[in-house]
Design a protein that fits this description.
This protein has one domain: Rossmann fold, CATH 3.40.50. α6 runs parallel beside α7. It has 238 residues and is an alpha/beta fold. β2, α5 and β3 form a beta-alpha-beta unit. The protein has a 7-stranded mixed beta sheet with strand order 3-2-1-4-5-7-6, sandwiched between helices. The protein has 8 helices and 7 strands, in the order αααβαβαβαβαβαββ. Helices cover 39% and strands 15% of the residues.
Length: 238
């Protein structure tokens, strides 16, 4: 057992070990590149954005997080680091990526395991739109979610629909690439019709779109209680 314990009850060396793996990944890239795999710099969440995701989740004191999209594990490492730093008794990190072994040859999952996270993280290799439906049916509850999977509007919309049932009222949903119209349009429905609200100042000072200065990531708080609006109350959102 780790003898270095922080005041919040977490083993101090574990989150530091994860942080070290994160720093190496940001500086040197993945330990190997899959043949024909996606470019690391193109698909990975930049280090400063990962820091902001971590800091927000620590501030929220999350214990369970659902993540869509593992790729090279930059955001997954930040999320797991946050789970360790909150001092949760039973941290849980559900990571969904149907392309982890086809496009990425398992590199992201290997990095999580190298950081000693396979006891709190679990990898699901089927489309999120199917798996999230089963999680919702099972009554699974999470404190937060991070969405960086398919960027097709219909897939993002379905992901957010089920996460609205899975993430507890008052919890948070973070999204990468909200500067893409397909992603921003999907989340606009939930803002306009279901009361999701951007978290002021979160994330701040992250990566922005060079063309329009739009932020790359977004963070939204779900309403409490969960609303059930009548279909006649529908408001156009795009």
């Amino acid at each position: 057992m780790n003898s270095s314990v922080q005041p919040d009850g977490t083993a101090g060396k574990r989150p530091d070990r994860v942080a070290a793996v994160r720093r190496r990944l940001a500086k040197h890239g993945p330990p190997r590149k899959p043949d024909g795999g996606p470019d690391f710099a193109t698909v990975t969440l930049p280090e400063r954005d990962c820091d902001q995701v971590r800091d927000l989740l620590v501030k929220e004191r999350v214990g369970t997080v659902v993540e869509i999209g593992l790729a090279y594990a930059s955001s997954a490492l930040a999320i797991s680091e946050a789970l360790l730093r909150t001092g949760s008794r039973n941290p849980r990190h559900v990571v969904i990526d149907p392309f982890q072994y086809t496009a990425y040859d398992g590199v992201g999952w290997e990095l999580l395991r190298s950081a000693g996270l396979d006891d709190i993280a679990e990898l699901v290799t089927e489309p999120s739109q199917r798996f999230l439906a089963r999680l919702a049916d099972a009554g699974f509850s999470a404190d937060a979610a991070f969405v960086d999977g398919s960027h097709h509007f219909h897939n993002v919309f379905v992901d957010l629909h089920f996460l609205g049932e899975i993430v507890r009222p008052g919890g948070i949903v973070l999204l990468d690439d909200v500067w893409w119209p397909s992603v921003s349009a999907a989340v606009a429905y939930f803002e306009t019709n279901l009361g999701w609200r951007p978290i002021p100042g979160a994330p701040a000072d992250g990566t922005t779109d060079p063309a329009g200065s739009r932020p790359r990531t977004g963070a939204y708080r779900l309403p409490d209680p969960r609303p059930t609006p009548d279909f006649k109350e529908f408001r156009p959102f795009c």
